[in-house]
DNA sequence: AAACAACATCAGAAAATCAGAGGTATCGAT
DNA sequence: ATCGATACCTCTGATTTTCTGATGTTGTTT
């Protein structure tokens, strides 16, 4: 690897000028460095490529010109490698891979994408629903560019921006008596059968919520998907406590549910976006920014139920 | 130019192994060098390309794999540049450009080419007739790979191998009285009209030859080509003194000439092959060798007239 | 002959590279 | 839970490479 890109650059520049001194001036280095580079190239091929005529500059012979052509080609390829690499960082094109532990992400993610992906950008989205740990694994090993996850369960190595604190709320069938209240309390719920979202982080969280308040009624159902929880609630199976909520009150089953804030001071869950903060690709950074500004606004698009 | 070929090599090797230590072993360098190279590549693109998981090696993310692909491509191109360069030196293919100041070169060059160019080699010959100075210029500035020229007029910078000493001989019409002698002397020629080859080096040389011996007869003709001299001689215009001679006694005019050695001790001209001795391409070296062995043999193929 | 232009060479300085030691995180087995 | 193996990171000093600037040489031009 004696023939470095630098040597090739010097070599081709010198040939282009036909003059070592001029090349040195252009490259802002000493002429001797150019001369040495030419020596290197010749040594590498063990060929005389250039005739050096004192007081008349240098001139490449046929072999020299052939080598120079190839070198120029390689340097061009190198430049395009660099700029393509730059585009990897700069451009919005490419693939944006997002893992999310946020079952109601469909409620807001499309809107976020709309905000930072103008029409015509050819970004391919890869969206993968997963649990909090998988998301963090995926972020660390490069599977995901960014993750939406619950910050309370964040590992120290994960860099993230909090997006929103989602306080738990109560999901009720429309016909439920509590639905007539604008706010419900944990005490209100003590008698209610519950439909519990049984997902890694969520299960422990809900468990924590109820450890304080006494529970009389049994758990009516465990479900591993948010929509199942919602549909069970809509069908009157019980109430549920959730943190984020879609923008529709209608469930897959066609029936409706009602969301009511909880008056008790319960620990919220923080939705956060995790990503590589040290060197984010532009599209990743844009996505993060879009997430932040999305949740910075108030309104139903934030998918939380305020007290 | 922070991203060197070396760094790319280390980077791609590390990714291929998914393991810095293994890559270091393969490349016979310290692991820290690999790690530094990866840092360099990432810094160059200002992107995280690799996730380093202690005790589990390294893993490229999508960007890393993309960059690696491009790097591998570039390194391949680099390798082929090197090997093509090697072929420039090694192979017999390519172009062999020869300038010659030897008007009778057609008498022997084809035979020389036969000797070192086996059938099927795709060497393109570029043969250019020129004068001694042009030949040397062309050799120095890379226009010619090798030159056939007169060594007496060689510049110090030109490296050459003498091929043959060509003593002057006398060219006579077949019907000329002197043609009956097996040898002629300068004195014999003093009375004869001369046909003089009027070419840069030759003119001075012949001038020198006659400065010593007295000349009575005028110069019958000056001609700038050997064949014209021969034809003029054949036509009886006069005699000529030349150094090398073709293998035919017939001239373009269809008439014949006779060559006779000169008994006087006159300075010969040395036919030499000039070339770049420091780094000859293989085909050039082969050509030179073929020239030497051609003129090392005795016989009419040497194109001289012996006493 | 003198002035000028341009490459060659060399020594020392600056920079890059590398090896090796020591440290730390992770995983798996005990 | 602890220990050992693995594998990456960081730091330091040595080595190698590269560069500069001065000086020398050569060839051209006036």
Automatic annotation (TrEMBL), chains A, B:
Keyword annotations of the record: DNA-binding, Transcription, Transcription regulation
Superkingdom, taxonomy of origin: Bacteria
Pfam families noted in UniProt: HTH_1 (PF00126), LysR_substrate (PF03466)
Domain HTH lysR-type residue range list: 3-61
InterPro entries reported in the protein's UniProt record: LysR_HTH_N (IPR000847), LysR_subst-bd (IPR005119), WH-like_DNA-bd_sf (IPR036388), WH_DNA-bd_sf (IPR036390)
Family indicated by similarity: Belongs to the LysR transcriptional regulatory family.
Name of this protein: LysR substrate-binding domain-containing protein
Organism the protein comes from: Octadecabacter dasysiphoniae
